[in-house]
Amino acid sequence: MKIVIFASGKGGVGKSLVSASTAIELKRRGHEVGLLDLDLHGPTQHILFPSSGRPEATREGLKPFLSPQGVKLFSLGYIFKDSPLPIKGKEKYGMVQDLTWLLDWGDIDYLIVDLPPGTGDEHLACIRAFKTASLYLVSLPSLHSISVVHRAYSLFKDEGHNPEGVILNMCWLKIDGRKIYLFGKEYKKVMRERGMEIVAELPFDPLLSKAPLKRSNSGYWRRISKLVAEIIARANRS
Ligand SMILES: Nc1ncnc2c1ncn2[C@@H]1O[C@H](COP(=O)(O)OP(=O)(O)OP(=O)(O)O)[C@@H](O)[C@H]1O
Ligand SMILES: [Mg+2]
Fold it and tell me: Is 3.40.50.300 the CATH classification of the domain at 2-237?
């Protein structure tokens, strides 16, 4: 099983959407996929994959459930719904550790992990448990976001990981065939200066707010398909 982690450091940049899209695209390509939402305080995969199903605790362990799209899912959102989870420090670290150890994913080819924003307990527990994972960071192409993401990138390096690079999301919006760069084009230079590789550049797609997981031939989904091909190629090389 190959493990692919999506992290950022920065909030609201599209980690959860890109994790979910990647899972859907891997499944479409014939791979068995699990998706682990490790956002304890603000899980969203239960919103992206709405279902009355929920993970189950059995004698063999904690079982994810199969979404209608055929992706195996675990998110605390299916259990706690909209209730807050008032835990901190060691409890959070322990909970993430438990989730990385206790879940019984069965026979899957890829486990996609969606991390919360920040560089705290959840991140450390996750990358220490999944030492051989491929790590992708997600950022907006803004200078502000890239600088926060660089901090997370450095933390992962200090922890002995070699992040694959950064997925820049919401780079442009196409209007009447013209690309409007929402945060300017300086990001390529800044990424070079920061020594971080750009693995993918994704457009802003207004249709995603209505139907986030509906695959189409849009620019966003074409680029997700290219990204997934790259993720598979890199995972097979490592
Ligand atoms: N390329 C895109 N085009 C249009 N909307 C997008 C795109 N990427 C993400 N979004 C939207 O931006 C919002 C934030 O995305 P998402 O929840 O995936 O970010 P996140 O990084 O996981 O946030 P958090 O840090 O809170 O976990 C969502 O409403 C999502 O649908
Ligand atoms: Mg998220």
Answer: yes
Residue indicated by tokens 């997370």: 152
Specify the pTM. 0.97
Q: Tell me the CA–centroid distance for residue 13 and ligand 2, in Å.
A: 8
Closest CA to 21 of 51, 55, 54, 48: 48
Residues with C-beta less than 6 Å from any ligand 1 atom: 8, 11-17, 39, 42, 44, 116-117, 169-170, 202, 204-205, 208-209, 212, 220
**For the chain, domain boundaries:** 2-237
The tens place of each residue's pLDDT in the chain, 238 residues long, gives 999 999 999 999 999 999 999 999 999 999 999 999 999 999 999 999 998 888 888 877 789 999 989 999 999 999 998 899 999 999 999 999 999 999 999 999 999 999 999 999 999 999 999 999 999 999 999 999 999 999 999 999 999 999 999 999 999 999 999 999 999 999 999 999 999 999 999 999 999 999 999 999 999 999 999 999 999 999 999 8
Per DSSP, 115 falls in state P
